[in-house]
Request: fold
Amino acid sequence: MDGNGRWAASRGLPRIAGHRAGADAVRRTIEAAPGLGISILTLYAFSADNWRRPGREVGALLRLLGRYLAQERERCIANGVRVQAIGRRDRLPDSLVALLEQTERATAGGRKLHLRLAIDYSSRQAIAEAAAEAVKALSDGRQATADGLSRQICRQVGPDVDLVIRTSGEQRLSDFLLWECAYAEMLFTPRKWPDFSTADLSDAVSEFQTRERRFGGLPVQRSA
Ligand code: FPP
Reply:
């Protein structure tokens, strides 16, 4: 969800105004996703490295996240959206953790969209934790082979990613779902996140559908 800050700066507004406009784009995207065949959506809301930003921006972003959760919870329940946070919780304000837990509990039955909010998230950290869990799981006498470890890590981290959309012209993964993106299709758009529209999402899905995914194999032969 890149480009909030630049979107605001280009309008002479403070960066947090860009994040607020970004929250509107989040709402639109969540509403449109199920209709476009998206069943799992992971949004990178706050990376573990975002703590490096000025305290004022960090505080405003975390408050915005809390407000969003409080405001949107009922709509998520009504629309079958299951909310889950991924990332560390021990560095977040207690009030935000409480809101996340309440929202996760209240929306647990949602079946239309699994919305994963990456907050204080680092993929390297997630993989390291998954590997530690996997070693524990395999240390009950069985040999911890590389394959066994890999399978266990797959179980611990999230589902494989089909498509990554990165906005505002950036072309990096920035410690986002590194394991899960092994065969993800990548789509980079110059559009700044607050301007990302339902039509942009629909175009991204259409573009994804044109990609030939081989997963290291050969193209599928179509019979004449
Ligand atoms: C990156 O753009 C954006 C973020 C670090 C924050 C994303 C957060 C939101 C959109 C707020 C609401 C989120 C939810 C899930 C309700 P940037 O600030 O780095 O922008 P820049 O690259 O133009 O400086």
Summary: The helical segments are 4-9, 15-32, 55-78, 94-106, 123-138, 146-156, 198-210. The chain has seven helices and five strands. The CA atoms of residues 13 and 91 lie 29 Å apart. The beta strands are 40-47, 81-86, 113-121, 163-166, 185-188.
